[in-house]
Amino acid sequence: MLIPALYLSVALFVIGTLGVIVRRNAIIIFLCIELQLNAVNLAFVALSRYTGIEGQLYVFFVMTVAAAEAAVGLAIIISIFRHYETVDVDKFNLLKW
Amino acid sequence: MITARPESVLAGSGAVSPPAAEWEPILPGLIVLLPLLGFVLNGILALRSARYSSAALREGRDWDPFAGPRPPATHRLPTWIGPGVMALAFALALVNFLGMMAADPHDPVVRSYWGWIVTGDLRIDAAIQLDRLSMIMTLVVTGVGFLIHVFSVGYMGRDPGYPRYFAYLNLFVFFMLVLVLGSGFGTMFVGWEGVGLCSYLLIGYWFSDREKSDAGKKAFIVNRIGDVGFLLAMFLLFQGFGTLDFVPIFAGAEDHFAAGGVTITAITLLLMLGAAGKSAQLPLHIWLPDAMAGPTPVSALIHAATMVTAGVYMVARSSVLYALAPTSQAVVAGIGVLTALVAATIALQQYDIKKVLAYSTVSQLGFMFLAAGVGAFTAAIFHLVTHAFFKALLFLGAGAVIHAMHDAAHHGDGHLDEQDMRNMGGLRRYMPVTCAVMWIATLAIAGIWPFAGFFSKDEIIWYAAAWAGAESNPFGRLYAVYWGLALLTALITAFYMTRLMVMTFHGANRTGKTASSRLHEAPSVMTVPLVVLAVLSVFGGWINVPDALGESFAGLWGALPMSEWLHHWLEPVTHTAAGIQVAGMGEAAHAAPVGGGEAVWALVSTLAAAVMVAAAVRFTSTRRYVRAAEDPGPQGGLRRFVYNKWYFDEVYDAVVVRPVVAGSRWCWKAVDTVVIDGFVNFTGNFARLAGWATSLFQTGQVNMYAFVLTLGVLVVLGATVFL
Amino acid sequence: MYGDWILHALIWLPLAGTVHVLVSSAERAKNVAFRWSAFVFVLSLGLWWAYEPGDGGFALESSASWIEAWGVGYSLGIDGISVFMVLLTTFTSAIAILGSFEYVRTRRKAFYALMLLLEMGVVGFFLATDIFLFYVFFELTLVPMYFIVGIWGGERRIYAAVKFFLYTAVGSLLMLVAILYVYFASGTGSFGYDAFVNAGLSLREQLWLFAAFALAFGIKVPVFPLHTWLPDAHVEAPTPGSVILASVLLKMGTYGFLRFLLPFFPDAARHPVVVAVMLALGVIGIIYAAWVAAVQPDAKKLVAYTSVAHMGFVVIGVFALTLNGLQGGMVVMISHGISTGALFLLLGMMYERRHTRLIGDFGGIGRAAPWFATAFVITALASIGLPGTSGFVGEFLALLGTFETHMVVAAIAATGVIFAAYYMLPMVQRVLFNELDRPENRTFADLSRREMAILGPLVALMIWIGVHPTPFLERMEPSVQAVLERVEDARADAGHTLGGED
Fold first, then answer.
1. Is residue C243 over pLDDT 90?
2. Contact state of A90 with B701 under an 8 Å Cβ cutoff
3. Selection from A1, A4, A34, A3 nearest residue A17 by Cα
4. What is the pLDDT of residue B334?
5. When comparing pLDDT for B407 and A7, which is higher?
6. Are A93 and B699 an interchain contact pair (Cβ–Cβ within 8 Å)?
7. ipTM of this complex
8. Which of B301, B479, B658, C468 has the most neighbouring CB atoms within 10 Å?
9. What proportion of chain C, given as a percentage, has pLDDT over 70?
10. What angle do CA B335, B172, B222 make, to 5 degrees?
11. What single-letter DSSP state applies at residue A32?
12. Do C477 and B47 touch (CB under 8 A)?
């Protein structure tokens, strides 16, 4: 049961990563990041069966962080949208230099 | 016989020197302290009065302290404080001197007040040493100093900076006393640099005048060149003896250094460098003529009577060291006689009355160094003392003339250089007293019997001759040349001094019609010191009449107990050096290099000097001088060369000053700004450039960042898996 | 007992003052700061009596554990070297704060808070006997000074501040590496002073570590050719910043030589090549800086360069490795702190009145402001080492000490005495003397009461040290002797160290 679960986890992670790289819409990118996090969560849960309870414990950490991140991230996206009236990440390069 | 006290046994027998009697000096520290007190009091007054003048300046009005019926207290009190402390100091010095004469102590008395620099094995005490030499110097400094202070009351009485003037003058005397009374080279150096400071302040006393403050600066810097020599000599002495005090150094020098050794020669040459700076000897003489920018009494006190003779005093004080270094002595004598000659030739062509006297001073100081160089340390001090009398008199007399000319110039038509002798002439009618006393001083400096300068200068020339003939003098021929040059210089001296007198006081008056009516004799506060100095210039030489002359000259001196008094008085100070010299070179000769004894040559030189005086009177009075404004200056190559002071200043400017300034600019503009800061800024700019280059990767596109990140992860993962 | 708490108080009271300044109003900030600094100074005066020279080791020692895992202690102590540095710091801090009342008019709270913080850092630096603690304080001084130059400075303040910061940081980071090396090499697991002294390093190690330490301190001193940050920092810094910089911060470099460099790496310190290099740099500094100073049109820059020349005397005095040389170096440090501090204050007063620092803009000030001129002349004379002032005692001893071991070096360095006159007198002349030809200089105000209160003690100290330096010399002698013995003891078993090298 472990191997298929890990394959699923890898597949989800790669999909998430590709989504982050290729998509332009900030919300989609955000969702892809969530996908990556959940891929890792899946791996944690699957492995916890063999390594102990800590794996499941970490999942809660990740979920907490993800929730906090979602709150902050969505807030940033909303304020960006208010300013530029778009969530297309190609349109803003505030991080430049 | 047996019960008789030893003193009474010895009294009367001149052969045995009496035992060193205990002698308690009376408040010796107070001699030094009194002028310092005067400085503090006058300094407070000066600062107070300066507040008024600067307040007036800010409000845009003139402040004349002498406008009212009575000047303010700040300008009345210095009249009493300045000369007052000097009178007290002189009285105290005299009391101590008389006490010393009565007790006749053989050893110096050292009074230590506190440990000045005490660390490790170094100990320099703030201590004074009273011995025969320092007491003579103290008497000269306080005595002549007192007279010049009194003269200053008249000369500077109407100057707005009057209290400041006396503050500086008192401070100078304080440092000069530290110099002569200091018990070691360390303490002496305090006075040494201190008098240089006061000289700087007083030359630039009228500091608003750029030329005058330039002259002060020049004096200070040139003096400091000499001071470096003094410093290094001190270091060498400390390395040799572990102390800088005179007593142990001079007592141990003979055992410590081989005669003519490298170290002792280096020490004495370095000390001579210091002396050359302070006493304006070649090649460091250039500051003294410029120093005439100061008030004339300052020139009399500092640049004629006392400070510039400090070098001579120091060499005489270190006689033991010089006696051990014959090469240094030859150098000292050579510098001395060359300076004397060069300065005397320059004096021939100067028109500024103070410049003539300045070069005359340089020349006379050269004579003193010649004396020290031929081992005649007593003669050096003797000439120092008589020179202090007659040169102070000459300067003060010149001051009286300038004072009169100044008043005249104010009422004359157009600009009038009040120090240019071409604008004077015939002043005898207006200033008879000044004229008379200055003639006395002129005859004294010219070396005419029986004035003071005759005895002292003749002794120096004689010693040069005798030294040249000493049995085993390694530089015998050289000294014979020195002797000839010294004789020549003495004759030139007689000429240029007579020229000065004739141009100033005789012939027709060239001051101008309206101006000449204002010419007047100086007030008595100025003439009385002149008369006192004139008396000293006549009789001052009698303290050391050589036996040979005493017998020859009319038998008059044979009867006096003054025969060679100074020589005997200074014997405890100089006898060690004399002993070393006799041991090293044998007895001095009793005849000049071309034959003839002391009395013969004295007669020859005084007659020659008299002839020169007469020749100068004739030559100068027949020449028609025109006023400075119309005079094109000296014509002819040699005359111009001499008039322009052998171009010393120009050569120094080209060889030393300009290269140093150019080097300084190069260090700043090239090394500091371009090389060092260039490197520093390059590293900064390089970092900035590198940062800019790498920042190009920051496109701001988050997707791209994620892509690169992923790529990076894959590369690292791949590397760990496959490598 | 006074001795038990004073060292701690001297470090933490300025910090308390910082807090107090921050919570008080901007108008009151200067008074609050001055009172704190004056209070600290008065407290520190007791050290003059509390410190007994004894054998020259640390006195009033106290130590607490700080970061136990690394063997870092909060250890303080004082000896005959640091006692004068601390007194100089507390004294000039109070003077500098008093001297800034007119100069600093913006962001006053921040300024005075930083000044007190700086005082804390410097005092801590001089008192620390734990190397980690010393390093922390060393870096701590950098921050306030950076802001003081960068915020209250002149036109090119940012350039000057960054240059100052980077120069110092380069040296101090290399020194940190060296400190860590010694820490691990000693094997005691302690940053204590004694552990570092007895680290038992080979000559080869010592030479490298010496280079790192010497670079850090040499930049601070500054030694030629690491000096170019100094003129910029001085010119741009506000008056109180310049005063502290010249009086105290430069002394951290030479103090580092005495406290750390020589005792930690004695074999390197007396290595002939090292000695030759350091002496050469000292002598070049003396003459080169004097020359460059002489042609500066900006008075403040001129005085900044004279600092380099003065510190050159300290360098040759220290590396002559003689008692007189080290003592002379110490006195030059104190004397330079007083006289150059006073010169910067005087230049600050000139700037406040005329808003220019160019020498050519002045002239004839002596007529307009006689008291100012008097103070200026005395200070200038002390700076060029006239006998009877503090400068002479220091330079004389430093040169004498150098002469004992290196005659030629001393002879060349002695010409610095001439060049001192060459740079200082023309400035004095062009500022104070000459014709009073500019109308704006006619109204140049003379010293106010506050300014007299600032300059009076400084002038008095210059003359006191010049006339009677013995109380200073006898207090520092045992400690200086101890440093010297440490270097010389190493000489005794040098064969062992050298043998171990191969």
1. yes
2. yes
3. A34
4. 93
5. A7
6. yes
7. 0.92
8. B301
9. 97
10. 35
11. H
12. no
